[in-house]
Structures are given as structure tokens and as C-alpha cells.
Design goal:
- The chain is mainly beta and about 150 residues long.
- The protein has one domain: Macroglobulin (MG2) domain (Immunoglobulin-like), CATH 2.60.40.
- The protein is built from one helix and eleven strands.
- About 20% of the residues are buried.
């Protein structure tokens, strides 16, 4: 009988739209975190700017780990569009990571953010391999045969 032990955490996907009202247009920023990942996997986030008047400036992605360590990534904006995914590889802390995304604004578009969203990193306890179980079984059989002989 095989037993599996899984630590499963639920990822909370948050897509937030925050308008920056202007007399000449409305810029909105939406963000989408990546899916739940396994320990050591790649965390990611994507941001979309729309409705702006030729937005320029920067998008700042700040990721904070469950142990409060953080990293900041900056992307240059050149018009409406999707930016990213930005990625962090090799994270080693299990739990919920927080992405905060901020648009810097420019002469035509107001700043937006930070917008917060969450991504989860999980861990599993590996299942015993059938090869390992077979070797244990063979070892037991050999010990039993030696005692009989």
C-alpha cells in the first residue's frame, strides 16, 4: 500500500484593476501572478497597462517572501500593453509570496499602485519509489534465506 504525503496550499489569484483618472483618458493597471509552484521553482508576475495616453515610465515589481526577504525588478514602459512575465527563480522558502506592482506615471498618466497579489510555493514529501521498496523486500528475503540455511 502506497501512502502519499502532500502539503497542499491554495493559491489566491488576484486580478486588480486600479484606474488613474485623467481629464484626457483613464489608464488602468491589471496584474496576474503565476500559478502555485513547487519548492525551488520559478515565481512570476505579469502587468498590463491599458487606456493610457502613450504611457512611459516604469513598472516596479517587488516580491516579498514569507520570511520578509524581498527583491525589486523594474521594467521600462513603452505604451499600453502587457509587461512580463517577470520571474524569480530558485526561491527556497515555502509559503505565500506577495507581489506589489507600481506604475511610476509620466506627464500624461498618473502613477498607480502598489497593487498587491499573492503566489504560493509548496513542498511535497516524495513518495517511496517502487525500486526502493523492491530492494528492501529483496534484502528481507535474503536475510530470511540465510537464517534458514
Amino acid at each position: 500500500m502506497r501512502k502519499s504525503f502532500w502539503i497542499i496550499l491554495t493559491v489566491l489569484f488576484v486580478a486588480i484593476a486600479a484606474p488613474a483618472a485623467r481629464a484626457d483618458g483613464v489608464l488602468s493597471l491589471t496584474t496576474t501572478p503565476g500559478p502555485t509552484v513547487m519548492l525551488g521553482g520559478t515565481l512570476s508576475d505579469t502587468a498590463t497597462l491599458s487606456g493610457g495616453i502613450t504611457p512611459t515610465g516604469t513598472l516596479t515589481f517587488e516580491i516579498t517572501a514569507p520570511n520578509n526577504a524581498f527583491k525589486i525588478l523594474t521594467v521600462v514602459v513603452n505604451g499600453d500593453g502587457t509587461y512580463g512575465p517577470v520571474t524569480i527563480t530558485g526561491a527556497i522558502v515555502i509559503g505565500t509570496y506577495t507581489w506589489d506592482v507600481t506604475y511610476s506615471g509620466d506627464s500624461n498618466n498618473a502613477p498607480i499602485g502598489p497593487l498587491a497579489e499573492f503566489q504560493v510555493m509548496t513542498s511535497t514529501t516524495p513518495e517511496p519509489s517502487s525500486v526502493g521498496l523492491m530492494l528492501v523486500g529483496i534484502g528481507f528475503l535474503l536475510v530470511m534465506l540465510k537464517r534458514v540455511a
